[in-house]
Design a protein that fits this description.
With about 110 residues, the chain is an all-alpha fold. The chain contains 4 helices and no strands. The protein has one domain (about 1-110).
């Protein structure tokens, strides 16, 4: 039974990764694409790793999967934020239909 649940998690993770790839292809600017990639890594890859942990159980590979999940959960959002802030500071424009630019509002508050 636990193997089936693990395979379900792996399938859900693969679906999130596929949708993340579609987001990279379809979304209009670097900020939206970065959001899609971050969600794919955080939800998709962590789900695959959790499913792997459920399938292999409490062994060396299972603990490595849990450690990788923890590492991804801690670093992926931070890296995405750093990349987005660096892109904004280097002058990469938002999509013309974007409604809010929080980085520009923060920049105005610094002066």
């Amino acid at each position: 039974m636990i193997d089936i649940i693990g395979l379900v998690f792996i399938g859900v993770g693969l679906a999130f990764d596929v949708f993340g790839v579609l987001g990279l292809v379809r979304l209009p600017d670097v900020y939206n694409r970065l959001q899609a990639a971050t969600k794919a890594v955080t939800l998709g890859t962590c789900s695959i790793l959790f499913g792997t942990f459920l399938v292999v159980g409490f062994c060396a590979a299972g603990f490595k999967a849990i450690l990788c999940m923890l590492f991804l959960l801690l670093t992926s959002p931070v890296a995405a934020h750093a990349i987005a802030r660096g892109a904004h500071r280097s002058g990469i424009k938002l999509w013309e239909k974007s409604v809010v630019d929080k980085y520009a509002q923060d920049k105005e508050g610094e002066k």
